[in-house]
Amino acid sequence: MHELETFKLIERISTLLRSEERKKYSAIGLQPVHGQVLEFLAKCNKYSNTHASVAEYLGLTKGTVSQSIQILERKNFLQKTIDSQDGRVMHLSLTEKGHVLIDELKPLDIFRQAEAKVDHLEFDTIQNALQSTLSVLQQVNHSKSFGLCRTCSYFTVEAHHYQCGFTDEALDRDDTDKICREHTPKPNPFIDQE
Fold this sequence. Notes:
Layout: H1 2-27, H2 32-43, H3 51-58, H4 62-74, E1 78-82, E2 90-94, H5 96-105, H6 109-118, H7 126-141, E3 155-157, E4 162-164, E5 169-171
Antiparallel strand pairs: 1-2, 3-4, 4-5
Helix pairs in contact: 1-7, 2-4, 3-4, 6-7
Protein name: MarR family transcriptional regulator
Domain HTH marR-type: 3-142
Organism: Methylomonas lenta
């Protein structure tokens, strides 16, 4: 069960970061996949900067990668050069504009802010570290927590039932393990101690 909770936290952090990434790329007329192509090309060597390598690394079809590369080339974020020894091979590299874009969009501002807030803290479990990181990311991003009912500030245990203090309604046992839009996190002893 512990592994499942850890996985869910990693998944939620990833979802929040992808959402922020989509907003940033959308604002400049790109999709996240375009950013992934640029990020790969920024860190790969001269043997891996080809269409096929990009497709293989990202787990995408060659068609999807080709379309993304065309868009990025048209917007002057990358350039193509023919291999000097094999004219059939096309190498891809970032332009200066492409490098600037990667520097501006990665790492995400909200992740940097969250990292600064939790970096100096010590955690007793990976789950507490991930939960604290997620909480800070949600605060910095001004997003709803969508946490489990049983982890909400409004959740209480009454005489013979569970109770939601927000709606003042009794809760079924199954409800307590489900996520809620109205979730309000309980104070986090790791990050709320400052």
